[in-house]
Amino acid sequence: MTEMEYRLEIERERKREKAEEIANTLTDMVNSCSGGSYEMECLINGILRQHRTLQQSFFSQFVLKLIETVANMRRSCCTDGRNIEMKKTCDLLFKALQENDRAYVDMDGNKKVYELPFI
Hints:
By secondary structure, this protein is mainly alpha-helical. The protein has two domains: about 1-50; about 50-119, no CATH class. Helix content is about 70%, strand content about 5%. It contains five helices and two strands. It has helices at about 5-30, 40-50, 50-70, 75-80, 85-100; strands at about 105, 110-115. The chain has a two-stranded antiparallel sheet with strand order 1-2. Strand 1 (about 105) and strand 2 form a beta hairpin. It is globular, with a radius of gyration of 17 Å. The relative contact order is 0.08.
């Protein structure tokens, strides 16, 4: 492994750890406030106070990507009674996006959501 490859690998691992930490923080927040809460309301309002381009990027890169990823999950290996409704809902949302030319199925059968454009 070259020095450059090593540095890239270290940076990639740092980004993975940061993303994992954010995922844990978000799921901890959701877990502690089932049914909605002040914290969740603050989080959503905080996102909506960001720059409009960042709002659209967040929606495209997080919300739509999550829908795409779940829609591509196979029910047999990735779902059970605890998350089956999430899978069904993402399948319905993907279908609605596809019907409105916001998503497609590629040649390999993978479901893809178009990223939202920037202005």
